[in-house]
Design a protein that fits this description.
The chain is an alpha/beta fold. Helix content is about 35%, strand content about 20%. It has one domain: Acetylglutamate kinase-like (Carbamate kinase, 3-Layer(aba) Sandwich), CATH 3.40.1160.10.
Length: about 240
């Protein structure tokens, strides 16, 4: 594709993407859909890395009950490894080679994160999937996405959502919510827009890393890759 604005991206997927946010666990149709959308990005000539959340399996501190935050976050990081393995298998099934890496040692289940190996895999056309978050509690997978994007020299973070960009409020609850085509980092922070956490926004701002928020399920990916703000919001 001639008009691609981004040659290497970090795609942030929620765990719910793997089950269409209906139940916990996995939905095969949703998993196949994710693999096909990733293939479309790769077919456009874009190098793709993924950070996946774990909301389909574990909601972290919000589901911890009597558990302390550190242990709850550790469980969430472990849950992302299951999602990463799921993505690998569905992508392999349609011919996409995948390198998995994990921020935490898993005793041989997944290779430990290695920046140089990840960049080499991206350059060779492989999909790279990062699991385990940052490897530390108190940091979300949003922050992990920005960290890995910066480390692997990505051109942007693509935040996959179910709406066509960032709104002033939840457009499903507030039909008159304003949709933004473009925002600065400071505007996103000042308005407390909850698409990504403040740490992730701040890290992007400090390193001038664009964030593209788009509807993963319906957006024309060619137009999103071309920077069309009618198909998603750009924070830069």
């Amino acid at each position: 594709m001639e008009n691609v604005l981004y040659s290497r991206i970090l795609l942030k997927l929620s765990g719910e993407t793997l089950n269409n946010a209906s139940e916990t666990g996995y939905d095969p149709e949703s998993c196949r859909f994710v693999a096909e959308r990733v293939k479309s990005l790769l077919d456009a000539g874009v190098e793709v890395a993924i950070v996946v959340g774990a909301g389909n399996l574990w909601r972290g501190a919000g589901a911890a009950g009597e558990m302390n935050r550190v242990d709850a976050d550790k469980m969430g990081m472990l849950a992302t490894t299951m999602n990463a393995i799921t993505i690998k298998n569905y992508c392999n099934a349609i011919g996409i080679p995948v390198l998995l890496q994990c921020a935490i040692p898993t005793g041989g289940f997944l290779p430990v994160y290695d920046r140089e190996n990840a960049i080499h895999a991206l350059e060779s056309g492989k999909l790279v999937v990062f699991a385990g978050g940052t490897g530390n509690p108190f940091f979300t997978t949003d922050t992990a996405s920005v960290l890995r994007a910066l480390e692997t020299e990505c051109d942007a973070v693509f935040k996959a959502t179910k709406v066509d960009g960032i709104y002033s409020a939840d457009p499903k609850k507030f039909p008159d919510a304003e949709r933004y085509e473009e925002l600065s980092y400071d505007e996103a922070l000042d308005r407390r827009l909850k698409v990504m956490d403040a740490s992730a926004f701040s890290l992007c701002r400090d390193h001038a890393l664009p964030i593209v928020v788009f509807d993963f399920f319906t957006a024309d990916l060619d137009r999103v890759l071309a920077g069309d703000t009618a198909c998603g919001t750009i924070v830069r």
